[in-house]
Amino acid sequence: MVLLPRMRDLGLGELLDFAPNCYLSRVDDILVLDDLTSAGFVGLTPNIKLDYSALKVATRQFAKLHACSIIMEEILSKQAGQRVTMYDLYSEYLQEVLFLPDVPDMKRSFDATIDNIEYIGSKFPEIAGKYPSEELRKKAQKGFNLALERVKPSEKVKNVICHGDVYVSNMLFNFDANNKCEAVKLIDFQLLRYCPPTQDLMFFLYQNSVKSTLDQCKAELIEEYYKVLSNSLEKFNLNIKELYPREVFEESLKLLKVQGIFHAFFYSPIQTLDPKLRESVFSDEKAFEKLKGNRFGLIDIGLELESYREVMKSLLSYVIELCDAGEL
């Protein structure tokens, strides 16, 4: 919470409604925020997928986060008379802590993701189509390698401070009486990174929706994101055509698409399980012992539920689309 007060001091307060107000912060000690439950905000379990209304409101919020990063860089650069980046100022908070292939535990998790993609492909041959298991595995490995590379700061396109972990459990939602989303707050900023803003956007879309929803509204959500980003910059007399032209944004979307898909596949086999089901499995000693001998046991349990199957089929379809497009 070092960053938000600095943004407020620079006059960005009208854009900071993407996060709760912070009243007290001490590193590794205490954090005092707005009590948003009294305002009707609720948390969602990680297996929940969002409808269009929630996707749209959340998209607007991290567009504001990214806009604040760009605006702050421009203000501070003007004051300093030289280029100043958020990474220059806050590098200690922006180091990669998740996608670290040289860390043994993380490497095992990444390898397990490749195993999971191959396994899920075998469960849905009607989607995997012309890609037998061995070929799908090779393409999945290439995709994950690209995801690891493209999550890094770009030397070609605009970088901003990204939330880095925009899945439903790191947001609070306010719904009206008809269950339409009216407001979203981003929380849990532990995985901040300095990279293209499309990293947040692509991961958010692929992680928090199913294909049937995203196919209908992806283009509109991308348009909404860019509009909010542009309007936010305009409030500070900044021109998006100069700072983040549409053609650069579109190119970045293409580059970060693979990252968003494989990031979502990294999270989803476990997070898509109903929390109560997951708890019952881990608390049942006999059931847990059976899982020890079956590395795909949790996936098999999940696949018994149609909601879980829909998510896995969606993610597998995205991977196959990348394969068919020659991107893997």
Automatic annotation (TrEMBL):
InterPro entries: CHK_kinase-like (IPR015897), EcKL (IPR004119), Kinase-like_dom_sf (IPR011009). SUPFAM superfamilies: Protein kinase-like (PK-like). Residues 31-235 form the CHK kinase-like domain. It comes from the Eukaryota. It holds the Pfam family EcKL. This is CHK kinase-like domain-containing protein. It comes from Dendroctonus ponderosae. The lineage of its organism: Eukaryota, Metazoa, Ecdysozoa, Arthropoda, Hexapoda.
